[in-house]
Design a protein that fits this description.
2 copies of one chain form a homodimer. By secondary structure, the first copy, chain A, is α/β, with parallel strands linked by helices. In chain A, 37% of the residues lie in helices and 22% in strands. Chain A contains 10 helices and 13 strands. In chain A, helix 8 packs across helix 9. Chain A is globular, with a radius of gyration of 21 Å. At the A-B interface, strand 10 and helix 8 of A face strand 10 and helix 8 of B.
């Protein structure tokens, strides 16, 4: 059998056909065009699914089910998107609509960060773990919790908002309304802002950083890579930024470990391309801070393995 | 049938016989005398159990099992206390020893805060909740998580350390080694320290507080009740302390809700005797901060119901 994995984003709808070895045998995408009637979005989604199934030489009878990974709060029991920030969905029955438009019996839905965590737990960094937690460091900081093979998201499916734990009370303003959320420090956006702040301070102090050349002296060109790149070339400002960034990241990771003590804590998103430059100092900082349990076994912290396909794979494994 | 609930503390061992309605039909206690061979502690525990069973006109055949709520990291699978800060236990098989000394077949163990949370979930404030979280505001800040009727404590039974989530990075020094742990602000000890700090500042600014009379002008007499007591009498300093205390408490509660979205979040410990003076402003602050889910249902925040008996009852329900 095969599974349809649908990664519904604010910009694109990506669909993959996934086999029982969790391999994507074919995939494609269409623009979401989020500013239109939600039904039209699901219709385009169904059309893309049909096209891919046909292109793969399959029929819908070969498809065990479709899964949709969606932004926002997804009620996995009813298939309804309760609320999504960047899509025209409010209490919108996307599973039922896809069943109708695509003509299949079973459609699962889940929040995208939760689905990615499930994919890592089944086919990625947390394979074999009884308890695992995943965060994704992107524009925001997404979280997913998988306990005993099941996504955990609380009684109203709105939990696992790990980006919105406050790690510095009355700290930086977050888009969620709180101040000092982990997301404001440890997302890729947080790293960009931290880089800009350090550069401004360096300029004030007459300190020259290699980053200035990388951005042609224009703070608008700062991205989440320049601090690491400069650090690798021995730049002091770059090293300071990276150290501060990982310090905040470690604080949040330690907090989550003190709560969940998962077998595996995995980290995805663009910042993870820094691999050991991120992971090694992070593990050292976390080891220093984690609440003692008499030298017993410790959570394994790993880079997520599924990369950009985590959305499609996460959606594809929702029925497992 | 009856259950033996054993609340093992650093100072006393309290034992209760609990019936199927979760009522304690008799209870007693002996000193722990923690600075001795651990086996002697368990022997005294067994003797107290025997005495209470006999006094109640029962025999061991009437006892379904015994449960022990213990400080520290308790491996509920093996009955071994992995580590406890204030008891001479390291990888110490307290369940097996109690079975031997008491002569019964089944003994469960669990960390005390986790057991209290289970008691509230079965017979207290979180009755009927699918997911519940409890914190206890005492000398420290203890946490317990109950998901689908089961205590959640991670792969190494060291999780649910909710007091050791950092809510203010690089903040107040915690006994666990981290800085800015929730426990340092929101435990009863945290409230005492906050009260002292405000009084010192008030003295510096020449502001007179009613608290000064309550403590006879001696900061050593500050306890966790005086700020609330003064606030109730219209004292400005008292009101400021209470507001700051509840502000930090709300920050941590909101963070835990954003992670777990439990049906019920319950709060136990001495500070809860302030009832609505604590609960009402807390709920208002949390409602303002909790991550949006489109106006959907919200976690119910409640004062715990089982009070000082939570330890005995928590131990007694471990087999359920």
């Amino acid at each position: 059998m095969y599974y349809l994995g649908i990664d519904l984003g604010g910009t694109n709808i990506a669909v993959g056909i996934v086999n029982e070895k969790y391999e994507i045998i074919t995939k494609g995408s269409v623009p979401t065009l989020a500013n239109r009637d939600g039904k039209l979005i699901i219709k385009d989604m169904a059309e893309l699914c049909k096209k891919l199934v046909a292109n793969a030489g399959l029929t819908l009878d070969d498809i065990a089910y479709a899964g949709i990974a969606t932004p926002g709060t997804a009620d996995s029991d009813t298939g309804v998107v309760v609320y999504a920030n960047n899509l025209p969905f409010e209490n919108f029955p996307i599973a039922d609509l896809l069943k109708e438009y695509l003509g299949i019996k079973t459609v699962y839905i889940e929040n995208d960060a939760n689905a990615a965590a499930k994919a890592e737990a089944i086919a990625g960094a947390a394979r074999g773990a009884k308890y695992s937690v995943m965060i994704t460091l992107g524009t925001g900081l997404g979280g997913g919790i998988v306990l005993d093979g099941k996504v955990y998201s609380g009684f109203n499916h709105a939990g696992a908002e790990l980006g919105h734990i406050v790690i510095h009370k009355d700290g930086k303003q977050c888009t969620c309304g709180r101040k000092g959320c982990w997301e404001t420090y440890s997302s890729a956006t947080g790293l960009v802002n931290m880089t800009k702040e350090h550069l401004i301070k360096a300029r004030e102090n007459g300190v020259k950083s290699l980053i200035e050349d990388m951005i042609n002296g224009d703070l608008n060109n700062v991205n989440a890579r320049v601090a690491f790149a400069a650090m690798k070339q021995g730049d002091k400002v770059g090293a300071e930024i990276v150290d501060e960034y990982i310090d905040y990241l470690a604080s949040g990771v330690t907090t989550i470990i003190n709560i969940f003590q998962p077998d595996v804590f995995s980290i995805g998103g663009g910042v993870c391309n820094e691999k050991d430059y991120l992971l090694k100092p992070l593990c050292e900082k976390v080891a220093k801070e984690t609440y003692g349990n008499g030298g017993g076994p410790r959570t394994e912290i790993k880079i997520a393995e599924l990369g950009n396909d985590a959305g499609i794979l996460g959606a594809a494994v929702l029925g497992l």
